[in-house]
Amino acid sequence: MHLSFFLLSLLFSTALHAEQYQSKQHFLAEAFNQQPPKPKVLWLKADLKKDVADILQHKPGFLRTRFWQKDERTVWILEEIGKTKPITVGVIIDADKITLVRVLAFRESRGWEVKHDFFTDQFKQA
Fold first, then answer.
1. Which of 15, 44, 76, 100 could in theory staple to 91 by disulfide, Cβ–Cβ 3.0 to 4.6 A?
2. How far is Cα 28 from Cα 46, in angstroms, rounded to an integer?
3. Which residues are 10's β-sheet partners?
């Protein structure tokens, strides 16, 4: 009985720390003036794996990822582990430069300030 209560309370406390700020669908609609294109897939073949590992500063935990493209704009929705839990981010790239990074969902118990512009603006134009 005590173990069941403990597991239930642990599950409930984890759910309390998950915050979704914007859905993936709303982010895509906003990025493409309410008309997002169909997703494409980028496979991490041998030549890309090293570049992606250099950017992430660790080996990627995926073999492929979806992205959306219209003209010179690409939109990526990625999950990366924060301290211990995934953080979902949306990234807009125009003409090979980051124009927007937005935290869509944050699941950590602390560090929520990463959702604010003062943090995400540091990536603009990279």
1. 76
2. 29
3. none
Instruction: Fill in the amino acid letter for 121.
Output: D
Task: State the DSSP code for 45.
Answer: -
Q: Give residue 39's pLDDT.
A: 97
Distance CA 71, CA 64 (A): 22
Structure-block tokens of residue 15:
């759910």
Q: How is the chain split among helix, strand and coil, in percent rounded to 5?
A: 35, 35, 30
Q: Cα–Cα distance between 49 and 20 in angstroms, integer?
A: 30
Rg (CA), the chain: 17
Pick from 9-23, 55-69, 83-97, 98-112: least confident:
9-23
- Taking only the tens place, the pLDDT of each residue in 2-27 is 444 433 343 444 444 568 889 999 99
- The arithmetic mean of pLDDT across residues 46-72, rounded, is 90
Burial of 31 (0-12, 13-18, 19+ CB in 10 A): buried
| CA dist., res. 28 & res. 114, Å (int) | 20
